[in-house]
Amino acid sequence: MLLKRIAPQLIALAALVLLVTLVYPGFLDISFNDGRLVGPVVDVLKRGAPVALLAVGMTLVIATRGIDLSVGTTMAICGAVAAWAIASGWGLAPALLLALAAGGIAGLWNGLLVAVVGIQPFVATLILMTMGRGIAQLITEGRILTFNHPGFAFFGSGTILGLPVPAWLWLLTGAGVALLMRRSALGMLIEATGINRRASALAGVNATVLLIAVYVASGLCAALAGIVVTADIRGADANNSGLWLELDAILAVVIGGNSLLGGRFSILAALLGALIIQTIDTGILLAGFPSEYNLVIKAALVLVILVLQSPRIAAEWRIWRKSQRASREALAERSRT
Amino acid sequence: MNTRALPLYATIVIFLLAYAICWLQFPAMLSTRVIGNLLTDNAYLGIVAVGMTLVILSGGIDLSVGSVIAFSGVFIAVLLRDSSLHPLVVFAMLLALTTAFGAAMGFLIHRLAMPAFIVTLAGMFLARGAAYMLSIDSVPITHPFYETIQDAYWLMPGKGRLRLIGILMLLIVLAGMIIAHKTRFGASVYALGGGEATARLMGVRQGRTTILVYAFSGCMAGLSGIVFSIYTGSGYSLATVGTELTAIAAVVIGGTLLTGGAGYMFGTLIGVLTMGLIQTYIVFDGTLSSWWTRIVIGILLLVFILLQKGLLKLSQSRLIEAAADR
Amino acid sequence: MLLSIRSLTKTFPGTLALDGVDFDLATGEVHALLGENGAGKSTLIKCLTGAYHRDGGTVALDGAEIAPRSTVEAQELGIGTVYQEVNLLPNLTVAQNLMFGREPRRFGLINTRAMRAEAREMLRQYGLELDVDRDLGNYSVAIQQIIAIARAVALSGKVLILDEPTASLDAREVEMVFDVVRGLRERGLGIVFVSHFLDQVFELTDRVTVLRNGRKIVTERTADLDRMSLIEHMLGRALEEEVEQQGAGKAAATHPDLLHFEGVGRHGVIEPFDLTIGQGEVVGLAGLLGSGRTESAELIFGVRPAQTGSARDEKGALDLKSPRAAIAAGFGFAPEDRKTDGIVADLSIRENIVLGLQAQRGWARPIPRAEQNRLAEDYIRRLDIRTSGREKPVGDLSGGNQQKVVLARWLAMNPRFLILDEPTRGIDVGAHAEILRLIHDLTGAGMSVLVISSEIEELVAVSDRVIVLRDRRHVAELRGERVAPDAIMRAIARDGTGDGETARCC
């Protein structure tokens, strides 16, 4: 059942890995150095962390028929908050908490605009997308706010049991949220709200609170992603942190087979989608192509997925199949007589 | 009075108030020199916002325009560097290309029945990626024709210079006003934004209108790219990141309903000038940082979205009350 | 004949929406088309306007056979339509709406001045003097309807179909629209008038055609009909037959009071009403479409907040501000429109059944999967839901089975008071009987039920007490022996001599 759901993503990922290995034979090499695993695959797991983290929250938002365009700027804000707290000597735990709180507030803001004020999701999150980098720059005062704090940097470049910390972060977040969704009733209630908000509300589902919650979750995931990026470069770059990552996150979610029209979702498949994107990124680099190809390939991918998900194309396909079947039957009928 | 026009009046009042405040603090703000610069500096934004206004009026959105502007700059710069074509020929090629690009996006939006923002997001990737593939570095443009048009201006009384690109922007806004308010195509755009099903019942050809709207936006983005390349004298693939957001904000601050169907092309001009004014103020002030621009724009965007939401509720409840009173 | 329809047939998967319907329209005639929901009125109209393509039969306009493929094509042929929901754009000006698609132009640009003058001239023919430069949305619905009529007539000019154009108008506005319609009749147009307000039918129309279950029941001159026979045709029950059965009435069982609703109402939706529900009692709501049946239920369940009134049970006041509050008070509501308000199509049967229960328990206390399976299997068996498995998406089921799933959702929550809005609409005969039996079983177990139905026999069969609604108010209550089809129909039909003629709300 589960395997069947994620089979397309697994096959796509395997094919992609094969392709990259053909062009760059060392892709699957992993060595153990200095207590840490090293190799292109490990690099994919680490570099893919921001998009994977964002994809977790974005999956929930998209399941409710929404979209969160502000995750990239929320990353920048949270990274800036964390870097500012570290640089001002607040210590590690307060810095992390502050960053998460910033993400939660950003999500709450979006959620209130969508669920309570009733603004369309993409418009509501566009507001924060527009002003977010300004807020981040306000915090960093327009500089790249650098710091030297090994404890915080650990979240970007440390390793636990040989695996990079960012990889652990998205693996654990993804597993944790997926478990929470499926072990509690949240998953079903979110899906019901996304498919038919009115019927769900009539059945007693508190759709308003659920909607706010998914945007908060998305904000928190963006905060984690912001922490990882900031810790990795040991500085908060308000201009470039999370730039265009909202698009990657949306792409990861839809590669994961989650419909932009809401409803059934799979976090696992979205994470595989994020891995596919990162494998393309890394593969292009390793294969010696200029990284400029990245955006074009992603655009083509979005296009293919849009065609696959289009309700109009699906309807036409059904009609075409039906007419084909009908003409086949007519043919069979004629040959019989 | 039509409630629909209220945001437009609000926009004009806010702009005049803001200008008055600026003038009180810095009397030099009221010189033709500042006004000339305001028009020149925001020429590319004004042009792309005209296209965006039409898209938003139709109930859509075009997130690709920032990337298309960057692509246009690089395309022009690389062609002028590597070939001996006259800039005007290059311009024509570029406009044909970006118009076709917009039309293709419009076709997909209509054909796939998918949200415009996701289709144009793909377009944003594609255009930016294409710009990267042409050149990653900034390519300077050194063509005598460019120098000629860069130097072309009309000296206003008070020694302000109204440059060619500023005049072009005003002409484009005028053309936009005629298209939106004076043609059947414009009426179809408003109708689509007011309600697709009803518009179809009234005889709007939805596919054709959608394709034309995005083609127009693509054309405006290309033209804006030309103006931007004249303004900066170069083409750079990393330029105008986020311009689509600024353009959307200018349209909304100009009083156009982000969900479509209501708004005025003239308001967009005021919206663009309001944004330019914020920037000019920050430059004059000297102590404020440039990131305040984005925050103020975001706040204005929020205020206008809430204002429109409130007006919608108000007019609905007023209709119900009017019905109940009888 | 201006328009002549012969044995028109239209099928949808699973239903025969129109079954050999004949219909004639003469020039200078207003012809009423009547029928309850699902009778086939809107299908017939859509076949005329090109929204649907007929499967059989002929449609001839001025003697020539037509088969429009779109509303635009129908308009060009001469058939214009005005719907209940105004089909114009509130964000355009009156002039733009009137002249849309045929604006006068000069040098390729719209000549605003000429457009304004032409629009004003058009409206003057209808006795309207308006500022045509204002947005349409600024005008009342009545004015908007007249503008819609003006546009439809200008574009088509032979046949005008009015599909419940007066549904949201008050008495004075209705007169305004009627004056316009009478004027058009004099100009020789053929007008098809769809309405569920019988007073209006008698006031305005020359002939009446009644549809029921996709068939034409009767076409008569309006003057030759009285209200009673018209309602008989619509609801499909000859009174004489019923009178005999009436004796089989039920013993007026006594039910201890469970719930009291006092003065519950909402402006323009339903006049304030009182309602008492007894434990284990079935109360039926009868009335024609648009009489306020569903609206009463929606106010009780908090779907639309009530502006006045209160509710209480034996323990004290109940706050019914939202469906969640109503559910907390032990209410359930199976709505009329299953597709948009009932099922969650992409979720499985199991998930749809446990959805309400789960929402009530809260997200943190999931119902164990084994328990979910047991519940689902249990209700699939008890309600005889025909499916190949509990994990099938509900959207794949037939209408009757979808209805059973929605019922199962509520039964799983074991409410003390269940509201069923048209529980048997669009359901085959077998399932129909099962659901009525189920209602009987439930009340036997002590549950109270409020049933809304357009089928009078069904109400008579299940109800202990029937409340009759007319023109958005509760007008009569029948109990015991009096719960019988003829009494209900008389209460529906009473044209209100004494209580305010064509009194509508306000």
From TrEMBL, chain A:
<feature type="transmembrane region" description="Helical">
    <location>
        <begin position="49"/>
        <end position="67"/>
    </location>
</feature>
<dbReference type="Pfam" id="PF02653">
    <property type="entry name" value="BPD_transp_2"/>
</dbReference>
<feature type="transmembrane region" description="Helical">
    <location>
        <begin position="144"/>
        <end position="163"/>
    </location>
</feature>
<feature type="transmembrane region" description="Helical">
    <location>
        <begin position="79"/>
        <end position="102"/>
    </location>
</feature>
<keyword id="KW-1133">Transmembrane helix</keyword>
<keyword id="KW-0812">Transmembrane</keyword>
<feature type="transmembrane region" description="Helical">
    <location>
        <begin position="108"/>
        <end position="132"/>
    </location>
</feature>
<keyword id="KW-1003">Cell membrane</keyword>
<feature type="transmembrane region" description="Helical">
    <location>
        <begin position="243"/>
        <end position="261"/>
    </location>
</feature>
<feature type="transmembrane region" description="Helical">
    <location>
        <begin position="295"/>
        <end position="315"/>
    </location>
</feature>
<dbReference type="GO" id="GO:0005886">
    <property type="term" value="C:plasma membrane"/>
</dbReference>
<protein>
    <submittedName>
        <fullName>ABC transporter permease</fullName>
    </submittedName>
</protein>
<dbReference type="GO" id="GO:0022857">
    <property type="term" value="F:transmembrane transporter activity"/>
</dbReference>
<feature type="transmembrane region" description="Helical">
    <location>
        <begin position="268"/>
        <end position="289"/>
    </location>
</feature>
<keyword id="KW-0472">Membrane</keyword>
TrEMBL record, chain B:
<feature type="transmembrane region" description="Helical">
    <location>
        <begin position="162"/>
        <end position="180"/>
    </location>
</feature>
<feature type="transmembrane region" description="Helical">
    <location>
        <begin position="264"/>
        <end position="284"/>
    </location>
</feature>
<feature type="transmembrane region" description="Helical">
    <location>
        <begin position="237"/>
        <end position="257"/>
    </location>
</feature>
<keyword id="KW-0812">Transmembrane</keyword>
<feature type="transmembrane region" description="Helical">
    <location>
        <begin position="116"/>
        <end position="136"/>
    </location>
</feature>
<feature type="transmembrane region" description="Helical">
    <location>
        <begin position="47"/>
        <end position="80"/>
    </location>
</feature>
<dbReference type="InterPro" id="IPR001851">
    <property type="entry name" value="ABC_transp_permease"/>
</dbReference>
<dbReference type="Pfam" id="PF02653">
    <property type="entry name" value="BPD_transp_2"/>
</dbReference>
<dbReference type="GO" id="GO:0005886">
    <property type="term" value="C:plasma membrane"/>
</dbReference>
<dbReference type="GO" id="GO:0022857">
    <property type="term" value="F:transmembrane transporter activity"/>
</dbReference>
<feature type="transmembrane region" description="Helical">
    <location>
        <begin position="211"/>
        <end position="231"/>
    </location>
</feature>
<keyword id="KW-1133">Transmembrane helix</keyword>
<feature type="transmembrane region" description="Helical">
    <location>
        <begin position="6"/>
        <end position="26"/>
    </location>
</feature>
<protein>
    <submittedName>
        <fullName>Sugar ABC transporter permease YjfF</fullName>
    </submittedName>
</protein>
<feature type="transmembrane region" description="Helical">
    <location>
        <begin position="86"/>
        <end position="109"/>
    </location>
</feature>
TrEMBL record, chain C:
<dbReference type="GO" id="GO:0005524">
    <property type="term" value="F:ATP binding"/>
</dbReference>
<dbReference type="InterPro" id="IPR003439">
    <property type="entry name" value="ABC_transporter-like_ATP-bd"/>
</dbReference>
<dbReference type="InterPro" id="IPR027417">
    <property type="entry name" value="P-loop_NTPase"/>
</dbReference>
<feature type="domain" description="ABC transporter">
    <location>
        <begin position="253"/>
        <end position="496"/>
    </location>
</feature>
<keyword id="KW-1003">Cell membrane</keyword>
<dbReference type="GO" id="GO:0005886">
    <property type="term" value="C:plasma membrane"/>
</dbReference>
<protein>
    <submittedName>
        <fullName>Sugar ABC transporter ATP-binding protein</fullName>
    </submittedName>
</protein>
<keyword id="KW-0813">Transport</keyword>
<keyword id="KW-0067">ATP-binding</keyword>
<feature type="domain" description="ABC transporter">
    <location>
        <begin position="3"/>
        <end position="238"/>
    </location>
</feature>
<keyword id="KW-1278">Translocase</keyword>
<dbReference type="Pfam" id="PF00005">
    <property type="entry name" value="ABC_tran"/>
</dbReference>
<dbReference type="InterPro" id="IPR050107">
    <property type="entry name" value="ABC_carbohydrate_import_ATPase"/>
</dbReference>
<dbReference type="InterPro" id="IPR003593">
    <property type="entry name" value="AAA+_ATPase"/>
</dbReference>
<dbReference type="GO" id="GO:0016887">
    <property type="term" value="F:ATP hydrolysis activity"/>
</dbReference>
